[in-house]
Amino acid sequence: MRYRAALDTHILPALGHLHLNKVTMRVIQRFYNQKLDEGQSPSSVITMNKVLNQAFEHAVKECLIGVNPCKGVSLPTEEKRDVQPLTVEQAQRLLQAAHGTMLEPFLALAVVVGLRHGELLALHWQDIDFPQGTLSIHHSLTLTEDHHFVIGDPKTKTSERMILLPQPVITMLLAHRARQQEARLKAGSAWQRSDLVFCTQQGKQLWSVNVRKRFYRLLERVGLPRMHVHDLRHSASTLLRSMGIDLKVIQEILGHSTLDMTANVYSHALPSMQQEAREKMNQLFD
Fold it and tell me: Which of 69, 72, 175, 207 has the fewest Cβ atoms nearer than 10 Å?
């Protein structure tokens, strides 16, 4: 999904008007340098290079150009991003600010049970069993090599899973379904029958970049730092751990293939967890 955003937001506006043989290594290097000067992260520039490199490799294969101009460009060093999980209070503020909108159940499923961005955008109403209070992951929205979004299989075999939903999230989803039914009546014949839980006002597939923009505006409104939608998945793991939920159960909820991934990649220590640890240490001296 980030590849499509890189193409539409950065590459095409800057280079899309140029003929293939006019896009040289120097042109691409100048483009990357400019993006860094504009404040784009090293990771974003590396993503742009992946998109361009793949496109030019295909052009070379089709004999449209002789050499891939991405070869030899100087790329920035990608720094590992320090993800700060939301506290319980911050998560509550975020959900309260999104109350009554599509983002409320979207964010709740991300921050409470850790659904991936692609899983949320591929979620169908038939995947939710309201009487049983369960949600099943069978699909994920992915970006193909030719930069088209398709709904396909989950990321891994363990990603296909069933999750028990807390009652407040079920209530949010029911309210969202009622709002969606109103939108369908208003759209009339323009409504596209997709059965998607999260869709446009005409029932069409949501673009991930549009969801991100709405998410960023919400973060700014509630005074929270800029983060990725996927960072909410990190928060889910940490919040679940802070509630004392077993690591194996968290692994199953998040759909991780190994327990190490759950323990090492997604679990951070919230201040409240540090406080609890200190209180337990104090007991050694009683």
Answer: 72
Q: Are 177 and 125 in contact (CB under 8 A)?
A: yes
Q: Of 10, 26, 61, which marks where a domain is finished?
A: 61
The total of structural domains in the chain comes to: 2
- Looking at the structure, tell me whether residues 122 and 239 fall in a common domain: yes
Q: Examine residue 82 and state whether it is found in any structural domain, yes or no.
A: no
CATH number at 109 reads 1.10.443.10
| Cβ 35 vs Cβ 44: under 8 Å | yes
Closest C-alpha among 117, 144, 52, 90 to residue 270: 90
- Three-state secondary structure call for residue 151: strand
**Which H or E run includes 174?**
helix 167-187
Q: By three-state DSSP, how is residue 138 classified?
A: coil
Residue indicated by tokens 């802070």: 242
Tens-digit pLDDT profile for residues 173-209:
999 999 999 999 999 999 998 899 999 999 999 888 8
Would 284 be classed as within a structural domain?
no
Where in the sequence is the domain holding 22, given as residue range(s)? Answer: 2-61
Tell me if 249 is assigned to some domain.
yes
pLDDT digits (tens, 9 = 90+) for 159-179: 889 999 999 999 999 999 999
Q: Under DSSP, is residue 128 helix (H, G, I), strand (E, B) or coil?
A: strand
Distance CA 188, CA 160 (A): 34
Cβ contact 187:180 at 8 Å: no
